[in-house]
Specification:
CATH architecture of the largest domain: 3-Layer(aba) Sandwich
Strand content: 15-25%
Low-confidence stretches: 1-22
Number of helices: 13
Number of domains: 2
Distance between the termini: 81 Å
Structural class: alpha/beta
CATH topology of the largest domain: Rossmann fold
Order of helices and strands: HEHEHEHEEHEHEHEHEHHEHHHEEEE
CATH superfamily of the largest domain: Response regulator
Number of strands: 14
CATH class of the largest domain: Alpha Beta
Length: 381
């Protein structure tokens, strides 16, 4: 074959490639706190998104389209999260965003997503993320207000009428404190002491000593996440406080028990999800097979059990995938509308049914009241 014929074949081959239709692709963005102070939340979230995208693509994608995941690590920095959200939309041209590991990063992403009219599914807890309702913002964890209500329901059952509160000053802690104070009176409970601590504080004994000394206090509630609740729990034990200690769903993970210490964490109660107690779920529980399948896949890939926070990412991607399938496309507006019509979708956090007025789709029945016994989570209701 001479040079001219070879060149002609190459030109023809290149022309054929150019004429061939490009493979369909859905571009999904994510800004997750894989590193930094919220890494124990974000690392399993990022692992879950990567694993699930691979599984979906291996099974043929969504409506025949492969998902291309563009994931950035914001390190828990709200400014970085905003920058990455802008980059995801303007440079990467994603059609939706999952992320916002923390309340702070979520709140910084929301205006960017709203302005661009891109669906955003947050993985953080504060009620402000979805209340008031924003057209393009959704979330998977229960709200902090719901956590307060679940805790106060349990306290009322136990006959507690006077409590002490200690809260982190971070976005989640401050929001949950506010929500708890707004609803506590509905349960006939009075807050006798109200203390706080900073995200980097390493000793909360002065605050706990103040609460311990309040007349009539029957239990103490810590509204917070990150390292703070573990420090509170250790200091609680060191001070010999025997009052019941309640924590928020922001620490519902095996990591909390490890950080606080098995002995110190014994007896701590908090509202959590089915994922933490999958083996204890009753046969016939709608969440049991979903939790079991996800746990098996995650454990096989990463050699460890998924955390509650990993489950938030699982549910976010499931909500998105379900909406894309029902919408018949990944068009942002069509997907947004489909997310609002999500009905009876079983996840690790609960059974999700959304409406235009409810961008969470969970109620208190999705929470399980849990207690740490012998270093493990148990169901106490």
């Amino acid at each position: 074959m001479n040079y001219l014929n070879t060149t002609a074949l190459c030109v023809a081959f290149a022309a054929g490639l150019a004429a061939a239709p490009a493979l369909a692709e859905i571009k999904l963005g994510a800004s997750i706190s894989e590193t930094g102070p919220a890494a124990y939340l974000g690392d399993p979230e990022a692992k879950t998104l990567k694993m699930m995208v691979d599984e979906i693509n291996a099974a043929g994608g969504l409506n025949g389209e492969q998902i291309s995941l563009v994931l950035y690590d914001d390190g828990g920095d709200a400014n970085k999260a905003r920058t990455f959200a802008t980059r995801l939309i303007e440079d990467d041209e994603v059609q939706a965003i999952i992320g916002g590991t923390t309340t702070g990063t979520s709140m910084s992403i929301i205006p960017v997503a709203e302005d661009a009219e891109i669906p955003f599914i947050s993985l953080a807890g504060a009620i402000e993320i979805i209340s008031p309702v924003k057209p393009w913002a959704f979330k998977t964890p229960h709200t902090d207000r719901m956590a307060c209500e679940k805790i106060f329901e349990d306290m009322k059952k136990q006959g507690y009428t006077k409590i002490g509160m200690i809260s982190g000053t971070d976005g989640f802690g401050a929001s949950m404190r506010k929500q708890c104070l707004e609803v506590v009176g509905n349960y006939g409970i009075e807050v006798m002491g109200d203390e706080s601590y900073g995200p980097q504080d390493a000793d909360m004994t002065p605050q706990l000593t103040n609460l311990k000394g309040k007349d009539g206090v029957q239990a103490i509630l810590n509204a917070g996440f990150g390292q703070g609740p573990s420090v509170v729990t250790r200091n609680y034990k060191q001070l010999g406080i025997t009052l019941p200690l309640y924590q928020s769903h922001g620490v519902a993970s095996e990591g909390f028990i490890e950080l606080a210490g098995k002995d110190a964490a014994e007896g701590v109660r908090l509202p959590g999800t089915a994922l933490l107690v999958g083996d204890l779920l009753a046969e016939g529980d709608a969440q049991k097979p979903v939790v079991a399948a996800y746990t098996a896949s995650y454990q096989a890939k990463y050699g460890e059990k998924p955390s509650t926070f990993a489950g938030y990412a699982h549910d976010a991607l499931n909500i998105y995938a379900d909406a894309v399938k029902r919408a018949g496309s990944a068009d942002p507006e069509a997907v947004r509308d489909a997310i609002e019509q999500t009905s009876g979708l079983v996840g690790t956090t609960g059974v999700v049914t959304m409406t235009p007025e409810d961008h969470l789709g969970l109620d208190l029945s999705a929470f399980r009241m849990l207690e740490i016994r012998d270093g493990a989570w148990t169901i106490v209701e």
